[in-house]
Amino acid sequence: MSFREVKAEELTMNPFTKIGKEWLLITAGNEEKCNTMTASWGAVGVMWGKPSATCYIRKSRFTKEFVDAGEYFTLTVLKDGHRDALNTLGSKSGRDMDKMHESGLAPVFVEGQPTFEEAKLVLICRKACKTFIGPDDMTAENVERWYGDRDYHTMYIGEIVAPYEA
Once rounded to an integer, what is the mean pLDDT over residues 137-157? Predict the structure, then answer.
C-alpha cells in the first residue's frame, strides 16, 4: 500500500462523519511493539497556529501507555468494510491478546509511525499537550452519563505533522 502525503489544508474530510460515524484508530508505539484502539470522540482544527487533532483516551486503556511513552501517535481512518476490525480493536485489550493480529488488519509504518495498510487517511501527530479531564472539569450530567465507572479521559492535542491519504 502506498500513501500520498498531502497538505493539512487540502483535507476535505467531514470530522463529524470521519470521527463520530466512521471512527478512528489511535495508534502509538514502534515496530517492536505498538498498540491501537478505536475512538469515536475527537476533533481537528488549528491550535497554537498549527493544524492539530485532539483525541481522548481513558486511563484504563493499554494504548494510553504507548501514547504517553512516545512523542508521536497516529489517527487513522480505515477504508469502508472494516467495521468488524474497529469493533474488535475497541472492545479488546492488547494487554490480554494480540488484537492487532486478531483484527485482521495489516500494520504498516509511515515515517516510522504505526498505522494500517487498510487506511484511507492517516494523520501523524506530534504530542503538543496532554491534560487529564476529571469530574471537576465537566458538568455533573456528563460525569453521570459517561463516567459511572470513574474511568476518566486524558485529552491529547497533537500537531498534525504529516497527513497521508491512500
Answer: 97
Residue 58 pLDDT exceeds 80:
yes
Q: Residue 84: phi, psi to the nearest 5?
A: -60, -40
Share of the chain above pLDDT 90, in %: 92
56, 39 in Cβ contact below 8 A? yes
Cell of 70: 512516545
Q: Is the pLDDT of residue 103 over 80?
A: yes
Tell me the C-alpha to C-alpha distance, in Å, between residue 124 and each of 26, 27, 44, 81, 163: 10, 10, 12, 23, 6
Strands 4-5 and 50-58: unpaired
What is the rounded CA–CA span in Å between residue 7 and residue 9? 5
Instruction: Enter the C-alpha cell of residue 27.
Output: 495508534
| Torsion sign (Cα): 55, 59, 61, 65 | positive
Residues 6+ apart with CB under 8 A from 104: 84, 85
Q: Look over the chain and give the mean of its residue pLDDT values, rounded to a whole number.
A: 95
Give 36-39 contacts, CB < 8 A, sequence gap 24+. Answer: 36/63, 36/76, 36/89, 36/94, 36/99, 36/100, 36/114, 36/116, 37/61, 37/62, 37/63, 37/89, 37/90, 38/86, 38/87, 38/89, 38/90, 39/75, 39/90
pLDDT of amino acid 119: 97
